[in-house]
Specification:
about 10% strand, Phosphorylase Kinase, domain 1, 3 domains, single chain, about 325 residues, alpha+beta, Transferase(Phosphotransferase), domain 1, five-stranded antiparallel sheet, 11 helices
């Protein structure tokens, strides 16, 4: 549904159409009472009519209520009644990083990429402290403000991660764009904060080289590339990339989560001293491919699950037998 400039919706006036995404239409608007610029996101009718997509929309609205950070796009209208489904969020006037890349701005100068990369890492550290994993980090979900700072946006795929690790999780279909998915998400894991660090590495690689490290002629081939291919070293493409920064990005892109930075804070610590880092201190040897199905960690989880089911079944049978004998 197109909304013309000047249309008033509750306390907001539409200024212009900004984007038509997969889940929602986005408009620049102004608050009538304060003249503040905001963005209005209207979910597509097909989203509201689809049980899974509608639940994802509601989950995103609920999650955004807790967010308040300079490098995270925040919700502005918590608690205000609406005449129709939409959400009011901060407006960033510089478009998305995706637009910068498609307009030929990438490869970026190393200094600018480093500034934005650090701001993204700060945003991830904030989200992870709250127990939130974004799970869909890509240039289209990173907004640029009029002051040339970045804000992480679009929390439709985000999850709260429980503080206590669950004993068993069922495989889940990957959510996101194939070129930016982490290997563990491709293999059916819901992902954790290390998955976001992998996404950070993909974005940084693209900003500095102009293209993603893993792709293919179709989504399946692109996902397979994450599992078997090795990224071309950045300095082979751009000799002006500092060796320390290349080592940081390639560490974030390690195929197995346990070989990446464990936290965004650890990533930030190295970013703040990347000019003095010795790449020889990083383990960047080629990794073995990750086959489909269960990896070592998932295999142990399967065995534990089977053991619990078997033990429960044996206990149940024993109880039934004991009761039968007692009642004779």
């Amino acid at each position: 549904m197109s909304r013309a400039a000047g249309t008033r919706i509750d306390g907001y006036e539409i200024v212009e159409h900004v984007a038509d995404g997969a889940q929602a239409e986005v408009y620049r608007a102004r608050a009538v009472d304060s003249e503040a610029e905001v963005a209005l996101r209207f979910p597509h009718a097909r989203v509201l009519d689809h049980p899974v997509l509608a639940a994802r929309w509601r989950r995103e609205l609920h999650l955004m209520e807790a967010l308040s950070h300079p490098h995270v796009q925040c919700r502005l209208d918590v608690g205000r009644p609406h005449s129709e489904p939409y959400v009011v969020v901060e407006y960033a006037g510089g478009g998305s990083l995706d637009r910068w890349i498609s307009d030929g701005m990438a490869p970026l100068p190393v200094g600018q990429a480093l500034i934005w990369g650090r701001q993204l890492a700060v945003a991830l550290a904030y989200l992870h402290h709250l127990g939130i994993v974004h799970r869909d980090l890509k240039p289209a979900n990173v907004l640029v403000t009029a002051d040339l700072e970045v804000k992480l946006a679009d929390f439709g795929a985000a999850l709260f991660v429980p503080k206590v690790r669950r004993f068993w999780t069922l495989p889940t279909p990957p959510e996101g764009t194939p070129e930016y998915l982490s290997p563990e998400q491709i293999l059916g894991s819901p992902g954790d904060q290390r998955s976001d660090i992998y996404g950070w590495g993909i974005v940084m690689y693209e900003l500095l080289s102009g293209h993603v490290p893993f792709t293919g002629p179709d989504p399946e081939a692109a996902m397979a590339a994450h599992l078997v291919n090795h990224p071309v070293p950045l300095r082979d493409l751009r000799p002006d990339v500092p060796p320390g920064l290349e080592a940081i990005i390639l560490t974030a892109l390690r195929r197995r989560p346990e070989r990446r930075y464990p936290t965004a804070l650890a990533l930030l610590d190295d970013l703040d001293r990347c000019d003095t880092l010795d790449p020889a201190g990083f383990d960047l040897r080629p990794e073995a491919p990750m086959a489909g199905g269960f990896g070592q960690g998932e295999g142990r989880a399967v065995l534990r699950f089977v053991a619990v089911v078997a033990a429960t079944f044996v206990a149940l049978v024993s109880t039934i037998v004991a009761l039968t004998v007692a009642l004779r």
